[in-house]
Each structure stands twice: as structure tokens, then as C-alpha cells.
């Protein structure tokens, strides 16, 4: 069984109103990086305006502003996930399942209502998401799984981290299950979703790795295309722009990745996860292997506590 990126793209197209909303949000964040860099450069020039070369520290100020905005975004990323990423993920889960969803602006409200209904604040969705990701990150190492065989011992740590990251990305499929289940609470659904992946961990990691590779190629292509106008604009400016055209192209291509490529990857793994439910699970992991992961024990405890 393999993921279908074509089908995933078709499913994402059904959520275009939300995709547009997602694009606007991430575009604003992308421009936030750019404006923060410009503000940092302007501040540095103002501070050193009395020196012989006021622009000497402009790049330092720009890097400081860019970094500061990145720190703020990382700090408040949970709010972005709550407002944009999670509602779209649950919306995609319903589309993949074959349910009808509203069109136009009503789709945005429907997605937010779905998130509020299936992942209410009382269910602590951010904590649940973090624990699911942490659990899936640990599973490959405990199961002795590697996405590719390390050809050299020095590459082993990198391959191990790459495998953990790919497995961690499959948390999207676990959280998406929540949007299709009313009878059980989010924590219990997440527990069962993780256990389902653990039975066929190699298959899940392999398929997500394939999706990640295709998305990476798409991101590189987007970066290369956007770099051309960025370099042309920089060449037309009356002052040197150093390495910043490359940074701007990277930020703008990140917007395209977060707005269009990531939803395709999510839709692909959601559909794959739903299809895997129709197959016979593989062999269970060794007794106690799952319980050796602290975050999984916390998920199980949370499922019991919430009934």
C-alpha cells in the first residue's frame, strides 16, 4: 500500500477557501520576518549614524531583527497551530473520509467549530499533540528502525534523527483521527492511533519519508523560482543587499511550503492511515516497549482520566 499524492492534492483542492486563509496567515508571517530584518537594519544605522560608516552594522541589525522575530514566532507557534494548522488538519480528515464540507467562507467557520468540538481546550490539545510527536519520535529507535541503512558509522546519528523526525511527522495522522471519532475522547483516540502505527511502523515511516522527499523537492523548486525575481530586485537597488535576496527567497518559499505543500503531505498520510485501518495489523511490539516511553504513559493515563 502506498500514499497517493495525486489524490491528496485533489482532497486539498476541496478545502481551497481554508488554503487561501492559511496562505494569507503564513504570508503575513513571512513578511513579518522581512520587516523585522528591515527594522533591525534601520535601527542599527540610526544608532551608528554619527560614525564614519553608518551602514557598517546594518547586516548585524538585520540579523538581530530577523532572529528576534523567529524567536517570537517559535514562542507563539502554538497559537498558529490552534488557529490554522489543526483546524485545517481536522477539515482534511473529514474530506478524506468522504464527508461533505461547506464551501466558501463558511468552510473556515466549520473548520474552527470542528476543532473546538473535537479538540476543546479542556482536552489540552497542545499538550496532547506534543506528547504524540514525542512518542512517535522515540518509537523508531526502540524498534531498531532506520529510514535508510547508515552507510557509515558517522552517519548513524544523523540517520537516527532523520528517522525520528519522519516518524514524528506522522502525528498528523494520529490527530486527524480525533476529527472522525465522537465516541472516545481525544487522548484515547491518540493512544489507539499510536498503537496502530506501532504495528506497521516501518511502513508508516517509509511512506512518510517518500512524501517528505517529494515535498522537499517541491520546496527547492519554489525557492529556485522565487530567487530569480529576488536577485533582480536586489540588483536594481542603489545599495548592496549582501545575502538577503537568498534569505527573502527562502522565507517566501517557506510560505508556499506551509500553505500548499504541507496540507498535501497531511492529506496523503491521513488517507494512507485510513486505508491501513482496513488491513490486518502487523506484529505487536515487544511487551513493555510502548510503556517505556514516558509521553506514551502520560497519554494512556490521560485517556483513563478523561474516560
Descriptive report:
It is built from twelve helices and no strands. It has 307 residues and is mainly α. It has one domain. Helix 4 crosses helix 5 (106-118), helix 6 crosses helix 12 and helix 9 (186-199) packs across helix 12 (294-305). The chain is globular, with a radius of gyration of 22 Å.
Mean pLDDT: 89
Structural class of the secondary elements?
A: mainly alpha
Strand content: under 5%
Largest sheet geometry: none
Number of beta strands: 0
Query: How many domains, in number, for the residues?
Result: 1
- End-to-end Cα distance, whole Å, is 34 Å
Q: What kind of assembly state do the chains in view correspond to? A: single chain
Tell me the helix content: over 70%
Query: Helix segment count?
Result: 12
Radius of gyration: 22 Å
pLDDT below 50 for ≥5 consecutive residues: which ranges? Answer: none
What is the H/E string?
A: HHHHHHHHHHHH
Global outline: globular
Primary descriptors:
mainly alpha; 75% helix; globular
